[in-house]
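Let's study a protein:

===
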Amino acid sequence: MKNYIVLGLAVFVMFGCGSTDEKKIEVAPTEVDGNDLDTYEGRVNEIALYTKLIYDDSLVFNKEYAEKLLNAYDKFITHDSYYNISKEYMFKAGELSRALDKPNDAIKYFNMLIERDPKDELAGSALFYKAMIIGDMLHEDELAKQTYQEFIDKYPKHPLVESAKASIQLQGQTLEEIVKGFKEKEKNA
């Protein structure tokens, strides 16, 4: 028994007194250092930083970084909207606003994109998401139906058209009503 205690103590001392070199834990910066945020490059770097910070740990939604990324998108859109990349940033700002439970901001960014370039490939999705936000977050069922129909009329070949048609039929129903409707269809089939 005494040998086990001595052996355990030796192992403890050996691992406990290891190298005196301390490993530094690298922490990502939360601000863009050395960049002038009054320049195009500075604003792009700020977006890149917060995008990296948000997506580095995809299992955790960091609201603070998301707010800073949304602010970075807004700065870019305000100052550099003439660049084509700004349309993508408008779309991403709309999605991020939706995730941050800011439906009116999301609609604002989606509208910016739709008004700027209604033929852009993201414009159709922006209009669909706008309808979804109006219905699901703002609970304005009739306006949501109208917006879904506008989406179907403007973008009849868009991959989300069938989802829009289903959303028009289901808009305003509770989950229980939807389930009941599906069960009745299944029963009658």
The CA atoms of residues 71 and 93 lie 9 Å apart. The first helix runs from residue 2 to 16. The two ends are 76 Å apart (CA to CA). The chain is about 70% helix and 0% strand.
